[in-house]
């Protein structure tokens, strides 16, 4: 599960993406995922999840991230993308606000339907989708290998400062002869955050130690 101080690293590591035509006339708004919108309470989010995916309470797991102190709702969903396996959608509620502020969608290669080839294919499909959206000029970055070994496919923010990032992670090998790094995809994640630069997570009070 990500927290979006991670967005800062993505911003520093990635280069601006250019050379593509934005076809959407209306500026993009990143306000959540499907019917689940940033700022919703847990009760409102549960209602949105059930409406989006026709799930019962038993299909929605609840847990707490011990590091960030944030409460999480998790579901498994089939067919979010054609010809892909199961996806796990994680809804995270801010430590102080207890309102929905982050949503991660992850396809894991442990599922037989999410082979490395499928993950790469779906990453390319979603990259094209996001590049077609009308993000503010200069806000789009991507196509970069991060220092932690992840491959950043896309990162952008809307005019309100909400963020979206997509990346592939997996074991990496370095091809010395061709001076390049190859990643075998283990998972593909699309992450949405209400305020990526200021995540609402537990923090130790300055001076406490």
Short recap of the structure:
This protein is of the alpha+beta class and 209 residues long.
Question: Topology, please?
Answer:
Elements: H1 6-13, E1 15-16, E2 32-33, E3 36-37, H2 42-53, E4 61-64, E5 71-77, E6 87-93, E7 100-108, H3 116-131, E8 141-142, E9 144-145, E10 151-157, E11 163-169, E12 172-175, E13 180-183, E14 187-193
Antiparallel strand pairs: 1-8, 2-3, 4-5, 5-6, 6-7, 7-14, 9-10, 10-11, 11-14, 12-13
Question: Could you walk me through the main structural features you see in this protein, from its secondary elements to its overall organization?
Answer:
Helices cover 17% and strands 32% of the residues. It is of the alpha+beta class. It has one domain. It has an 8-stranded antiparallel beta sheet with strand order 4-5-6-7-14-11-10-9, sandwiched between helices. The protein has a two-stranded antiparallel ribbon with strand order 1-8. The longest helix has 16 residues, at 116-131. The protein starts with 5 loop residues before the first helix and ends in a 16-residue tail after the last strand.
Question: Which features does this protein show?
Answer:
209 residues; alpha+beta; two-stranded antiparallel sheet; 17% helix; disordered N terminus
